[in-house]
From TrEMBL, chain A:
<dbReference type="InterPro" id="IPR050366">
    <property type="entry name" value="BP-dependent_transpt_permease"/>
</dbReference>
<protein>
    <submittedName>
        <fullName>ABC transporter permease</fullName>
    </submittedName>
</protein>
<keyword id="KW-1133">Transmembrane helix</keyword>
<dbReference type="Pfam" id="PF00528">
    <property type="entry name" value="BPD_transp_1"/>
</dbReference>
<feature type="domain" description="ABC transmembrane type-1">
    <location>
        <begin position="89"/>
        <end position="282"/>
    </location>
</feature>
<feature type="transmembrane region" description="Helical">
    <location>
        <begin position="137"/>
        <end position="163"/>
    </location>
</feature>
<dbReference type="Pfam" id="PF12911">
    <property type="entry name" value="OppC_N"/>
</dbReference>
<keyword id="KW-0472">Membrane</keyword>
<dbReference type="InterPro" id="IPR025966">
    <property type="entry name" value="OppC_N"/>
</dbReference>
TrEMBL record, chain B:
<dbReference type="InterPro" id="IPR013563">
    <property type="entry name" value="Oligopep_ABC_C"/>
</dbReference>
<dbReference type="Pfam" id="PF00005">
    <property type="entry name" value="ABC_tran"/>
</dbReference>
<dbReference type="Pfam" id="PF08352">
    <property type="entry name" value="oligo_HPY"/>
</dbReference>
<keyword id="KW-0813">Transport</keyword>
<dbReference type="InterPro" id="IPR027417">
    <property type="entry name" value="P-loop_NTPase"/>
</dbReference>
<comment type="similarity">
    <text>Belongs to the ABC transporter superfamily.</text>
</comment>
<protein>
    <submittedName>
        <fullName>ABC transporter ATP-binding protein</fullName>
    </submittedName>
</protein>
<keyword id="KW-1003">Cell membrane</keyword>
<dbReference type="InterPro" id="IPR003593">
    <property type="entry name" value="AAA+_ATPase"/>
</dbReference>
Length: 295, 673
């Protein structure tokens, strides 16, 4: 009989390298991952790259058009729009970068647990989730922010809470697919506890779906954060932020369009990058995202 | 058949090779140098195990290649037309009309939102010249032609309102709409119940005789092939290794693989275990320079390793691809003599089921408010069975007979509506897993049908086997490792399997791991739920042999559920026959398989297909689907060919006791059964 080669389960690093290679092998994935990496680099090294001080006000340079000195012109206080755009994503990436894992973790756990338990509790919980999802998100979020104030310490838990709720749905649906399979039945028949079943049977099979969902939630959360900033509930001036910059510059859009275009470019390129990466990640992991429409 | 030999073939496949490009950029063949001809009116069987290329060949005959495949060499002609050279439009004119395909799962190939009549009219619109106005009449004719009862009513139904067998008939009717010259059938009866399968095959035989169509019948089941085919091509690893008349291939197979395949099929008349064919076929591109079967062949010589045998014509007209075709006859065709029946002490029952009943009906909200019990007839009722230590009880019945439901209840996955489940020394078991003690759980283990489903794809084999060892024995570290290794050895897999994932194993190896996991608990009772029906025949024989070895060495009792009567016969000491969740007959295997028997057992046994050209199934009962058991009387009343009269509809029949614990539940006295 032929001696089979030694197969081993790929280690975490091997899998990470494999998935990354798979993502970059697709043109859309390579562009997406490139954009995301570019923005992360900017967020980290931005302060050293920015040609001007982001809060340096100059009354002589108000609302200038693009020039060799100021590539994207200046804003209504004479600050360099290019420098501010470079730094404009830092706050957003920091807040959503912390809130997204929290949302995926709590939403994922609740979803898996109720997907496993099933029955009446599950039915009731899902109706509560539906009720939550039926409310416009901005309304829910504004309510909490108005009550507790702005600032990172409020924004992170607020975003994490509200964006964890749709994750419950996805995690529960993914869990339902797995729970019906015989290996979960086999574990139940052996008499394993619920936590053991979640940890060793369900989680490894739901993890990929959660990973993709996390990437998608991240882009939604960025949009939400920028919208809050635009409305004046996000970061406080003079910290540069794309949402806030758009809000400030939109009044002068007709004669200084670069003030709006620059932050829009920054925000949309990051969100498009995340979306492309998430799609490529889903394909690399073998998940059909078309089947699981975003909530 | 003789006179057709001179006619030009309808389908002609010449030196066809099909392959795909692997990751390394090398072309890997899935079909190699196939030469097949089908003449008008002839019926050709393509038989082989999964991965042998039989479906690929059938699809190639209609000019279709699955995604990623391409033609490496050769041609496939239909009525003289090169199918791979035709344009899409030309192919559309042939496919579905002159050359029709019937796929394996017709339930899925029928459109769920359209009535059967509408789907048939569409087929007529596309593939016949009949004017629109005559379609309705023709639809009924077609449904009549496939022997569907009450055709005009069926035409008005949706696919989900039909049973599996009726769906298959509707699909056949659709294929007949274009009055095809040839019909390609890809495992058309796989997944159907034995009686339904026998009826569908008889229908196909009759249709072939009536219409003079040629048929290409793809199947892994030599029993089905024996019934409908004039000639058979045996496929192995993408090659045609043997071609000949059905009689010759089944009676005197001149290729070692065909002989091994035949020997591995359990036979109804033979209580012995079938002979396993060890090893597995080479993957595409792995066949090497020699004979593809050399790794598994008992008569292979040095020459077989280096030179690929040509397809040689034998004096009988059969063609065989083997260097040693003359020596094939010396290979054993049967298992060695009786391996010795085990002696089972009657007294110590390990499991007893007392009047077990299970109901899927859930009380509605009003019933719950008023505390009423659901009134629907239970799915499973009145099951009283005692199983001795070390005994194997076979549970047989068609789909929906409640076999698996009973296993689930015993395993504690489904709460029974009434009755007792007792385990020796432990008294009555709590109905649900959550309430059972670890030791009670350990003593009863379950093996599932499909190892792809029952093994977690994300766990290595070592992790899978560690689950019960940790849970029941608290093993860890070196002790766990040693025990895991010993378990793998006991199912004839080496320690090098430990770090593999299930996806890296073959079907048979996966099922061995599932068996090892069940035996890790050192159980007294193992519940086997159709454990071999997802496997190829040769692999099935090896798994049956393994189960037999394990019960001998450990004195484990089995409840062995299967729809395959021959498989049950090979392994069971006693057999219980179930219909609609009620016991019909129970007794020692030899007694159940011989007369006297319950009318339902008789129907079941009559429908079994044997790989023998001279046996015909005896079809006595009507092939009507049943959705739920009758509320009163005998469960088999609606289909019984020997129904006595109104008493069968109103009274539950009494148990008629025969010799040696053989009991039959029927109104007909024991002597007349």
């Amino acid at each position: 009989m032929a001696v089979a080669s030694i197969h081993r389960r790929p280690s975490f690093t091997a899998r990470f390298v494999g998935v990354t290679a798979d993502i970059t092998a697709r043109p859309s994935g390579a562009i997406g991952l490139g954009l995301v990496t570019f923005h992360l680099m900017l967020a980290i090294f931005g302060p050293w790259l920015a040609p001007y001080d982001y809060k340096a006000v100059d009354a002589n340079l108000i609302l200038q058009g693009p020039s060799g000195l100021h590539w994207f012109g200046t804003d209504h206080l004479g600050r360099d729009t290019f420098s501010r755009t470079l730094l404009g994503g830092r706050e957003a990436i920091l807040v959503t970068g912390i809130a997204t894992p929290i949302a995926v973790l709590w939403g994922g756990f609740v979803g898996i647990f109720f997907g496993l338990v099933g029955g009446k509790i599950d039915d009731v919980l899902m109706r509560v989730v539906d009720a939550f999802l039926s409310l416009p998100w901005i309304l829910k979020m504004l309510l909490l922010i108005v009550t507790f104030g702005t600032g990172i310490e409020v924004l992170i838990p607020t975003l994490a809470f509200f964006y964890g709720i749709p994750v419950i749905r996805i995690a529960r649906a993914a869990t339902h697919d797995v729970v019906a399979r015989d290996f979960v039945q086999a574990a139940r028949a052996r008499g394993h506890g619920k936590m053991t079943i979640i940890r060793s049977e369900l989680l490894p099979n739901v993890r990929d779906a959660l990973l993709v969902e996390g990437a998608m939630r991240w882009s939604w959360m960025l949009l939400a954060f920028s919208s809050l900033s635009f409305l004046g509930f996000g970061v406080s001036p003079p910290t540069p932020d794309w949402g806030l910059m758009i809000a400030d510059a939109r009044g002068y859009m007709s004669f200084a369009p670069s003030g709006v275009l620059a932050p829009v470019l920054g925000l949309s390129s990051l969100i498009i990058g995340i979306n492309l990466t998430a799609d490529a990640l889903a394909k690399a992991l073998g998940i059909d995202r078309a089947q699981k429409a975003p909530v | 058949m003789k006179d057709t030999m001179t006619v030009d073939p309808l389908i002609r496949v010449r030196d066809l090779s099909i392959g795909f490009t692997g990751r390394s950029g090398i072309t890997l063949p899935v079909l190699r140098n196939i030469d097949v001809a089908v003449r008008p009116g002839e019926s050709l069987g393509l038989v082989g195990e999964s991965g042998s290329g039989k479906s690929t060949l059938a699809l190639a005959m209609m000019g279709y290649l699955k995604h990623g495949l391409r033609v490496i060499g050769g041609e496939a002609r239909y009525a003289g037309l090169d199918m791979f050279a035709l344009t899409r439009r030309e192919l559309e004119g042939i496919r579905g009309g002159r050359l029709a395909l019937i796929p394996q799962n017709s339930g899925q190939s029928l459109t769920p939102t359209l009535r059967i009549g509408a789907q048939l009219s569409e087929a007529l619109r596309l593939h016949s010249k009949l004017p629109e106005g005559e379609h309705a009449v023709r639809v009924v004719e077609l449904l009549e032609q496939v022997r569907l009862p009450d055709p005009s009513a069926i035409a008005g139904r949706y696919p989900h309102e039909l049973s599996g067998g009726q769906q298959q008939r509707a699909a056949i009717a659709m294929a007949l709409a274009g009055e095809p010259e040839a019909l390609l059938l890809d495992e058309p009866t796989t997944g159907l119940d034995v009686t339904t399968q026998a009826h569908v095959l008889e229908l196909l035989r009759d249709l072939a005789a009536e219409t003079g169509m040629a048929m290409v019948y793809v199947s892994h089941d030599l029993g089905a092939i024996a019934r409908v085919c004039d000639r058979v091509v045996v496929m192995y690893a993408g090659e045609a290794v043997l071609e000949g008349t059905t009689r010759e291939v089944l009676r005197n197979p001149r290729h070692p693989y065909a002989r091994g395949l035949l020997a591995s099929i359990p036979k109804l008349a033979d209580a012995r275990l079938p002979l396993a064919l060890d090893g597995r076929p080479p993957a595409p591109g792995q066949a090497g320079a020699g004979c593809a079967f050399v790794q598994r062949c008992a008569i292979a010589g040095e020459g077989c390793r280096t030179a690929r045998p040509e397809l040689a014509t034998l004096p009988s007209g059969a063609r065989v691809r083997c260097h040693h075709a003359d020596r094939v006859g010396s290979l054993p065709a049967r298992a060695p003599a009786e391996t010795g029946r085990r002696v089972i002490a009657e007294s110590d029952a390990i499991l007893s089921l007392g009047d077990l009943s299970i109901s899927y009906a859930r009380p509605g909200i009003l019933d719950q408010l008023f505390g009423r019990r659901p009134t629907a007839t239970p799915t499973v009722d009145g099951i009283t069975i005692a199983l001795a230590k070390g005994e194997t009880l076979g549970l047989v019945g068609e789909s929906g007979s409640g076999k698996s439901t009973i296993l689930k209840a015993v395993a504690g996955l489904l709460p029974p509506a009434g009755g007792r489940i007792e385990l020796a020394g432990d008294g009555a078991l709590p109905p649900l897993v959550d309430d059972r003690r670890p030791d009670q759980l350990r003593r009863v283990q379950l093996i599932f049908q499909n190892p792809d489903e029952s093994l977690n794809p994300r766990q290595t084999i070592a992790e899978i086997l560690a689950q019960p060892l940790r849970l029941y024995f608290g093993l860890s570290g070196e002790a766990l490792r040693q025990r895991t290794e010993a378990l793998l050895e006991s199912v004839r897999l080496g320690a090098h399997y430990m770090d593999r994932l299930p996806s890296q194993l073959s079907g048979g190896e996966k099922q061995r791991v599932a068996v090892a996991r069940a035996f890790a608990a050192e159980p007294d009772l193992v519940l086997c739920d159709e454990v071999t029906s997802a496997l190829d025949v040769s692999v099935q024989a090896a798994v049956l042999d393994l189960l037999d070895q394990l019960r001998r060495s450990r004195n484990t009792a089995y409840v062995f559920v299967s729809h395959d009567l021959a498989v049950v016969r090979a392994l069971s000491d006693r057999v219980a026959v179930l219909y609609q969740g009620r016991l019909c007959e129970i007794g020692p295997a030899a007694a159940v398989y011989a007369a006297p028997s319950h009318p339902y057992t008789e129907v079941l046994l009559g429908a079994v297909l044997e790989p023998d050209p001279d046996t015909a199934p005896r079809l006595t009962a009507a092939d009507i689907p049943e959705r739920s058991p009758p509320a009163r009387g005998c469960p088999f009343q609606r289909r019984c060919p020997r129904k006595l009269g109104p008493q069968c509809d109103t009274d539950m029949p009494p148990w008629r006791r025969g010799k040696g614990g053989h009991s039959i539940r029927c109104h007909i006295p024991h002597e007349q059964l």
